[in-house]
């Protein structure tokens, strides 16, 4: 059998995109000051769009939500951003104690932090020049769970309130709606694709970058209704679909381990492979 018959076609997607692989390192070098989401066919780098638009990863169990958020947060730290990790479940313990990271596991602390972040925007103390240094990134592993927890926290601590919505949930809505203008960017995971109780937040407009994986037609209808024929879910771990400009592009997401994420965030030398 000839070499051309056994080699991988240039248009094929990688089955994995690991940090130390030469094609991944080439993509990272080319990206320069932009986080890498992964590789499309032909090893084309897929980058997080410029600006501070929010990103949503809508995926079922095992769809790669944690991996995507981990890789992006580590790159954001390497580029000089501050990262607030909202992580009651401990999925992102790799970020604990890193410089420029605020690691939040308790709902009460998340509630206070969101209100203080909004207050900083409203009093004009938040300044942003458009770059990564000075940007504040909020990593939220599961927005639905956090919104529910904030609502329950307020219900149990302020049962006499007449407010229609918990202040923490309202603060999250404000950050989603106005944060990008002040350099506040939300990287959110959500297996449902919507945020119960925040129906007034236009999800498709707020999350300018959407990634889907392991989702059936109902998930696609909630997250990307403009796609008339949703692609079939892939069984390849890390296989995602980027939705933009009315179409879906298959992407193999960048995978980094916890140790690699810590090294990447701290600007340490990256491993290199020959594969």
Terminal Cα separation, in Å?
A: 22 Å
- Mind telling me which CATH architecture this is? 3-Layer(aba) Sandwich
State the helix count: 9
State the CATH superfamily name: P-loop containing nucleotide triphosphate hydrolases
Strand content: 15-25%
Rounded to an integer, what's the Rg over CA atoms? 19 Å
Major sheet characteristics = 11 strands, mixed
Segments where pLDDT lies below 50 for 5+ residues? 1-10
Briefly note the structural class of the backbone.
alpha/beta
What oligomeric arrangement do these chains adopt? single chain
Whole-number count of domains: 1
Percent helix, as a range, is: 25-40%
What is the helix/strand order? Answer: HEHEEEHEEHEHHEHEHEEH
What is the CATH C level class, in words?
Alpha Beta
Number of strands: 11
Query: Which fold name is given in CATH as the topology?
Result: Rossmann fold
In short:
By secondary structure, this protein is α/β, with parallel strands linked by helices. It is 33% helix and 20% strand. It contains 9 helices and 11 strands.
Describe this structure in words.
This protein has 275 residues and is α/β, with parallel strands linked by helices. The protein has one domain: 3-Layer(aba) Sandwich (Rossmann fold). The chain has nine helices and eleven strands. It has helices at residues 3-6, 22-31, 65-78, 107-122, 143-157, 167-178, 203-206, 217-223, 258-265; strands spanning 17-18, 36-39, 45-47, 55-59, 82-86, 101-104, 136-140, 184-189, 209-213, 239-244, 247-255. Strands 1, 2, 3, 4, 5, 6, 7, 8, 9, 10 and 11 form an eleven-stranded mixed β-sheet that branches. A hairpin with a 5-residue loop joins strand 2 (36-39) and strand 3 (45-47). The longest helix is centred in the middle third of the chain and has 16 residues, at 107-122. The protein starts with a helix and ends in a 10-residue tail after the last helix. Residues 1-10 have low confidence and may be disordered.
């Amino acid at each position: 059998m000839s070499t051309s018959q056994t080699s991988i076609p240039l248009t094929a997607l990688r089955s994995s995109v690991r940090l130390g692989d030469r094609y991944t390192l080439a993509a990272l070098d080319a990206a320069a000051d932009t986080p890498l989401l992964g590789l499309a066919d032909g090893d084309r780098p897929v980058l997080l769009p410029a600006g501070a638009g929010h990103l949503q990863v809508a995926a079922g169990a095992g769809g790669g939500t944690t991996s995507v958020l981990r890789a992006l947060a580590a790159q954001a730290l390497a580029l000089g951003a501050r990262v607030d990790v909202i992580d009651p479940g401990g999925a992102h313990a790799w970020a604990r104690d890193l410089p420029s990271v605020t690691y939040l596991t308790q709902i009460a602390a998340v509630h206070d932090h969101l209100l203080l972040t909004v207050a900083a925007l409203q009093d004009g103390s938040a300044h942003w020049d458009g770059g990564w240094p000075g940007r504040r990134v909020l990593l939220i592993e599961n927005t639905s769970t956090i919104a529910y927890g904030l609502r329950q926290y307020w219900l149990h601590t302020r049962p006499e309130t007449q407010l229609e919505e918990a202040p923490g949930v309202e603060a999250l809505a404000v950050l989603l709606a106005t944060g990008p203008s002040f350099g506040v960017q939300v990287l959110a995971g959500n297996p449902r694709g919507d945020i119960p109780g925040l129906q007034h937040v236009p999800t498709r407009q707020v999350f300018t970058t959407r990634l889907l994986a392991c989702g059936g037609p109902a998930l696609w209808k909630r997250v990307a209704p403009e796609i008339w024929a949703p692609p079939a879910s892939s069984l390849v771990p890390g296989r995602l679909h980027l939705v933009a400009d009315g179409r879906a592009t298959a992407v193999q997401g960048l995978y980094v381990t916890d140790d690699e994420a810590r090294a990447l965030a701290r600007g340490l030398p990256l491993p290199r492979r020959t594969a």
